[in-house]
Amino acid sequence: MQRQALAALDAARPAIARLDRSRHAEELAADLIEAWGGVETALRSILGGTPLGGLNLIREARQRQLIALDQANALAEFSAARERAQDTAYHPTDADINAAREGFLKLEASLMTPVSTDGDPVQGEAMSTKGLRLSPLGTPTPVALPPERKPWLLPVAGVAVVALIAVGAFAVMRGGDDASLDRGVQYWQRGQRELAVSEFSRAARDNPEQALPHVYLSRMAREVGNMTLAGQEATLAVQAEPENAVALREMASYLLASGNHELARRFYVRALQANSEDRSSMGFLGCTLLKLGRTDEGMRWINRAGQGSWSGCVPGAMPPASPGMQPIPR
After folding, report:
1. Which residue of 7, 196, 215, 328 has the fewest CB atoms within a 10 Å radius of its CB?
2. Which segments of the chain are extended strands (E)?
3. How many CA atoms lie within 13 A of 144 on its CB side?
4. Measured between alpha carbons, how far is 245 from 279 in angstroms, rounded to an integer?
5. What is the DSSP code (8-state) at residue 278?
6. Residue 14 belongs to what H/E stretch?
7. Are 248 and 271 in contact (CB under 8 A)?
């Protein structure tokens, strides 16, 4: 659980690093939201999994004495900054940026520092080995010199290494990493949702750096109206691959379906920056602009995208026939 929490923070670190007052307010808001998504994922990991979010999630972690009081307060400030950033008329301030950075750093510290029974960090005690990558306090244990090797063992060891490399290469060439994803797509296309969810979840566990399993899980959640889960999976997709056009488009689609039209517009723009030829992002960016009252811009993007499922958002237009459940391009 601790390792997963640290991985979630590592995925959110680029968004924290981008927080700077010199950047546009919309970009700052998007990064605040993305960074908080990583923090929530980390908190859920150390809790062992929970649907809670925001202040309720912080309160639960505090009640279980997994974070100290000052850490909980810092995270609450970060959560409040994220809530303000969701208002499209709001411009993030220096205080919001500082709250995000402090909350992020304090949560990371809580994952590295032992906690006493009253919930406060233990003082005067070296960090556990889990914190050695960030702390000079851990004392290395002397390691005895290895026994002298026999000359004839070297060729044998070399053969063993070559064999292991060959096995690893074979596994990669087999495409085993994508097997669960491929099965999930097949189940999804056949309408076997439970089996599809199982395979996509396995693919996400086996390949935490891959966005596509989370994209499918987010899309499936949107299809049944589970917007909480859709948002969580879309956030995980963007955290896994921040520059992945499909992940950015899925986040935009979730935001559009949730009625957060301005933030959806920002993510569609980011998706097009990652892939300028993505017709779906073009078309639904047009739909989003129509929702925002920017009719001329919206129609230009819709016309540029051509006919597609986005055509139905044009007033008076008939949506095209559904092409069915097509696999998401990789």
Report:
1. 328
2. none
3. 3
4. 11
5. -
6. helix 2-18
7. yes
Question: Are 244 and 266 within 8 A, CB to CB?
Answer: no
Calculate ∠ Cα 219-220-226, nearest 5°: 95
* C-alpha triplet 280, 281, 282: angle, nearest 5°: 90
Given CA atoms 294, 295, 296, 300 in this order, what sign does their dihedral have?
positive
- Exposed / middle / buried, residue 91 (Cβ in 10 Å: 0-12, 13-18, 19+): middle
Query: Tens digits of per-residue pLDDT, 178-217?
Result: 788 999 899 888 888 888 888 898 899 888 899 999 999 9
Contacts 24+ apart (CB under 8 A), 272-276: 272/245, 274/243, 274/244, 274/245, 274/248, 275/245
Angle between helices 2-18 and 25-46 (to 10 degrees): 170
**The pair of three-digit structure tokens given for residue 102, joined into one six-digit string:** 């402090």
- The predicted-structure confidence for 90-118, as pLDDT tens digits, reads as follows 888 888 888 998 888 888 877 765 444 44
What are residue 121's DSSP bridge partners?
115
CB atoms closer than 10 angstroms to residue 82: 24
Token pair recorded at residue 92: 């993030």
> Cα dist. 59→72, 79, 255 in Å?
8, 12, 26
The tokens of 15 are what? 């968004």
- In this structure, how many other beta carbons lie within 10 angstroms of the beta carbon of residue 139? 8
Q: Integer distance in angstroms from the first to the last C-alpha of the chain?
A: 29
Q: Which residues contact 198 (CB under 8 A, 6 or more apart)?
A: 184
Lowest average pLDDT, out of 62-71, 112-121, 284-293, 294-303, goes to 112-121
